[in-house]
Amino acid sequence: MVCGGFVCTKNALCALNILYVLVSLLLIGVAAWGKWFGLISSIRVVAGVLGVGTFLFVVAFVGLCGALKHHQVLLFFYMIILFIVFVVQFSVSCACLALNKDQQNRLLEVGWNRSEDTQKDIEKTLDCCGFSYVNYNGSCAARCFHNTPAPSCDTCSSIIQQYAGEVLQFVGGIGLFFSFTEIFGVWLTHRYRNIRDPRSNPGAFL
Question: Distance between CA atoms of 123 and 193, rounded to whole angstroms?
Fold first, then answer.
């Protein structure tokens, strides 16, 4: 059987969806691990990661079932959903790679102001206080804030900006890589749907 035939296409599609299942389980595991050990206290962050992992798992499971059974309806919906995910992920990845320093700073500040739990996580992890200024009359989860006799802390924005560019480049690159696997999956699914199963009735088109 040459590659590109029914069996080869089926195996390639199954392997791709097994990869997506593993990635989804990794996301769910990381979110649960971070919450369990107290590394992430923000419910929104944990819920977001769990939601993405669960969604990816369901999509991959549908694709895997469709590939194993050569089920036309499952494969059709899988192909449509995967294409929508590709468009969204490709757009977000390109945006991450195209952001300049000012845009990165505004985006970080918006994210900072949306959750107090996230602020505490960042202050505790990076040992910093406040986003753009340190309020020594307020409260802070960082160790430096509780130093005696005189606390001295850096702002979180100055520390985050040292790594924000590299992180966005990394996230954008990973996103682009997986977006290309998704468009490959769309093409593979379309091809697989239009191949006759050699084990079925030769006169029937599944």
Answer: 51
